[in-house]
Please model this.
Amino acid sequence: MSKNTKVNAAILIIGNEILSGRTQDTNTSTIAIWLNSIGVKVNEVRVIPDDEKKIIVTLNLLRKENNYVFTTGGIGPTHDDITAQSVSKAFGIKYELHEEAFKILEAYYQPGEFNEGRQRMVWMPENAELILNPTSGAPGFSVENVFCLPGVPSIMKSMLGGLKNKIVGGEPILSHTISLRTVESEIANSLTKVQNQNKDVEIGSYPFFHAGKLGVSIVLRSEKQSEIDNCNSQILEFIKEKKIEIVDR
Amino acid sequence: MSKNTKVNAAILIIGNEILSGRTQDTNTSTIAIWLNSIGVKVNEVRVIPDDEKKIIVTLNLLRKENNYVFTTGGIGPTHDDITAQSVSKAFGIKYELHEEAFKILEAYYQPGEFNEGRQRMVWMPENAELILNPTSGAPGFSVENVFCLPGVPSIMKSMLGGLKNKIVGGEPILSHTISLRTVESEIANSLTKVQNQNKDVEIGSYPFFHAGKLGVSIVLRSEKQSEIDNCNSQILEFIKEKKIEIVDR
Model:
């Protein structure tokens, strides 16, 4: 049922604050939507603690299984920011002061403000490529197919644009949503038939509550518009038969 | 640095809609906060697609590595809801109509409304224990240490209360937050010293932007209030020295 596209990625969210529930992760959704738009499908997301061993083991697995890995979190100046040194160890390369990053931050801060804490942020895996940060100066970095971004959502988001030329995606994954004033059980059988006749379209069914009313969003995803259109027609057909109302959503 | 508590859990979010970025997962945070309150620490979260093989492999790994596993998603009536059958296969037990669940839904719906689609929701692993659903009838279920909950956040949340007696946690994990009008680099060195002197407290440092101003929240987590208090005093000390303002957050 689920479709394998040629280019895929994993997202690795690093941070105790997500696992404790204190912070709601929103980076997954931001990165996934952006990746979809450039033809990369997210296969898996993992959230792990700020724990060196766990980062190393998880990263070494994900970077082999996926075309790309995106990490968020743990690249700031405090003791719990251990992503850069862990990535260095995962790749077995030196963790050292990055000259270019040093120059960027030296120029970014007022004289005297580029203190010891901030200088910690320019320590990276040897020869890492920088990911520029238009919001707050301190760059992220990439090593091979692993891209390390900060955890603060607004900063992270502002850095994605700069990655466009570094990621080679497949066909963009197209999607179409049909929202209905119905419940899933009313359409389940018909939808199964449509799925069986359209194996290459990923058809999702998602119940929602909105403005006090129940509904279902059907989401069609494929790389081919013609496949989505075909699937859409078949769904519109059974909706009409069942006299189910289409709603905005 | 990170502390191992005696009782831990993994959360397994099942659903293409999270991986595509269409839907923002909020269940992780809800479950994690609830688990913390009953003394269970979340070790790891994974988000995987509605893919039988992937569900089986991931579940069989997580249920061995953790005291508890909580899954969300994929237990509705449509073709993409394959969690129950996948869990059955993961445990190598029969997937069959659950008599008790059948009776619950038969009573829940108006005569004639308990149709084929809805009846799909009472197929579960043989002898699964039900997790009652006060919101919309259809129960979740548990097998051994694996608890399967729906993906719709409001429904999922309403079912957690019923699990309290089934989960045996350790000491509740206590936390204390100190929010400061500063930037991380100003406090990084002092905080490292405090962490080194308080190995059993997990100290997190989280920058925030609020009302146009930068700040940092320091979060202290431990099972022991005395350890948190001790750590807190040391932090208040260096804050005073540095003349950093404490803010509400």
Remarks:
- Residues 59 and 90 of chain B are 7 Å apart (CA to CA).
